[in-house]
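Hey, I was hoping to borrow your eyes for a little while. I've been staring at a protein lately and its backbone has me curious. You're getting the sequence in one-letter code plus the fold written as tokens. Would you mind checking whether the tokens look sensible for this chain? Here's the protein in full, and shout if anything looks odd to you:
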Amino acid sequence: MSKKVSIFFLMGIFICSWSFAQVQVSKEPRHVPMIENKYIRLLDVWLLPGDTTGYHIHSTPSVFLHFTTTWTGSQIQGRDWVKSQSIAGNAWYTSYIPDSVIHRVLNYDTAAFHVTDTELLSVFNPDGGLKPLPFTVLFENERVFAYRLDNSSLNQKYISKRGPMVAELVEGEGVSYFDGRTKKSTRIASGKYLFIEPGSSFYFSAEGKSKINLVLFEIK
């Protein structure tokens, strides 16, 4: 009887461990959902020095943005750790199609690690037809445009009749978002972000003379 109990106990541990490993990224405690709507789910991730996330699964097309330059490690389940340096302002897209990824992340550095993971939940205009905005294009694919705006490119250039967007400020004293319909402005602080509804009419302006590094993701 004791042997059977031991077997069932070990099986229970294995099943619990496997279930924990299968947690979706949006349920991993250090991936905090900050914006969620029809189009996106923005997860804000902070890791203190020496801290590690739990194993989590990525299975939704996503865009990522590093806010810090930090030495980190990533370990895909069942493999060795891979160490790399994040670079502030680095943005990229991963489709996770056809394969999802189960991994965990460790902060090797002496300073905090900050990154956003924005899951793309639905498309805006499946028929296509949108052309890139007149900003620096970081990348473009079937789901999203990614732009970088600086002091010279963001000041009071009206944007209208576009898809839903997420503006994320990597560097700068602050950027103001001016809504052409409501005539109201919203400040985006460094390390923060703002969701912009599709079809909005707006422009950005910089506060002060500090260097601005603003990344804008536009959902197609």
